[in-house]
Request: fold
Amino acid sequence: MTNDLAVEAHGLVKHFGTTKAVDGIDLAVRTGTVYGVLGPNGAGKTTAVRILATLIRPDAGTATVLGHDVRHEADAVRSLIGLTGQFASVDEDLTGTENLVLIARLYGFSRAAARARAAELLHAFELDEAADRSVKTFSGGMHRRIDLAASMVISPRVLFLDEPTTGLDPRSRTQVWDIIRVLVDDGATVLLTTQYLEEADTLADRIAVIDHGKVIAEGTASELKASVGSGSVHLRLSDASQRLLAQEVMTRTLGVPVLLGTDTSALSARIGRARDATALLPDLLDAGIDVAEVSLGQPSLDEVFMALTGHPAESDDDPAEEVA
Amino acid sequence: MSAPDTSTSLGASPSTGDGELNPLRAAIAPRQRPARPSALANALTFGWRALLKIKHVPEQLFDVTLTPIIFTLMFTYLFGGAIAGDVRTYLQFLLPGILVQTVLIITVYTGFTLNTDITKGVFDRFRSLPVWRPAPVVGALLGDTVRYTVASVITLGLGFILGFRAGGGIVGVLLGVGLLLVFAFSISWIFTSLGLVMRSPNAVMGTSMLVLMPLTFASNIFVRPETMPSFLQTWVDLNPVSHLVTAVRGLMAGTATFSQVAWVLIASAAITAVAAPITMRLYRTRS
Reply:
């Protein structure tokens, strides 16, 4: 076992009835890094995090957090970690201050120290003016910040964030990202799950892509992207009847397979570099094709999934994930 | 992705943040941790949470205050004349029983509250903390005693206004309420188990009421069992609620025997010994 691993998991398996929520996951997260677990709804992300945070026991496999076994030394693990997720939120009936005082008291802070700690965290997370309001009156972004503050009462060394930005507006998302960066800058380790490739790309030092309870790819963001091409070009035609002709032109110019979208006037192709697409428009015009819309994009989670698994990252909510 | 806007972001970018002045950086910096608190301290903290919830959502005391008033008035005047010849005589018999029924119905809230925590999303937070494992449940039960006490005071207060007189005096009344609280605490563990198994707070409520109906109505709360068919008498004699009502009546009237009280205490201990470990097992293994 290497000492610089904050989280290590081998062959984790968890079944809910006949559903294999987690089906043999290995993870190795280096101390002081952000590790992204990327996957669609129902892929097993939440279940994996809940195993690592000692909330559920795996059916098979082992996992350690800072060297402590999550099964046999659960209490030691709990004293080192912070957890924020859909089911690890705060009490909506209580105020911001009361929630943080509650948690500080549970960790053993004296009454006065708990109140001071709560005030310090509320200030740090820009929630001063909401200190005495019920959390249920908070906006989405404020709610997520109080969730995060609640998991930082004792400055955890490893923080598990289950979809920390799902449902947030872009500004709140940026704030959460800033918080995560400061945490890691201070030496903490963050394991976060996300459905957004962009988020994993922006924050994570390494990424594991999970599908149907298995890790299907692992590496840095650039390694993953290299495996699927750096981007893609999307076209929409004014006249759907020209699609086959457009496909021919694209294939010739780009030298890559061109996919036909479900929209009968749409086509797309993965390209190595964005500038490969510059030659495309003149060629299409020359062929007399009326282009309504062109866009260049990073590979989306869908495209990563398509490339890695051969099936789209459909959001068929796994019922096990819902109750888990 | 839009660039972080420094006027709205937390100003926490690692490359520009000033370690001395940045409140976020200061607040999350590693710090010394306090010593781990005792199991009792953990449970009391959760009890404090239950009181805070009553403060913020006082509606949850509505039925605790209204149910005993409605029950007492309704059954006293509905059955009094028919069963005992007059209202006042019946009240002497009924009031301790109504008190028991009122408090037992409130015990259902323990499971309801626990299930609400699970569905609303604080449950995993508590389970991820290094605290004494039963603390959230025990603390909630401690908080519930406030509800029981409020309901008891209202029922007894109304009873005295209507003409209830306790032969056992104030000591008898307090002992009766105390015995009832012990039993309520033990039976709450059954509802916490349900709270951990059921899928929604309303399912917990429904199922718990289904459990409580035969326990409270098929008992000696409203009428003496002598006129009942023999199978029902057998049930009423087995029903722990009947024993509880007999003991509470006895304590309030000053006629309780040692065995009546001991029966309830032993039953409470037995229920707790079985139901508490089941609750804790469900709590630990709930996925």
Summary: The CA atoms of residues 186 and 272 of chain B lie 5 Å apart. Residues 38-285 of chain B form one domain. Chain B touches chain A through 54 residues (CB under 8 Å).
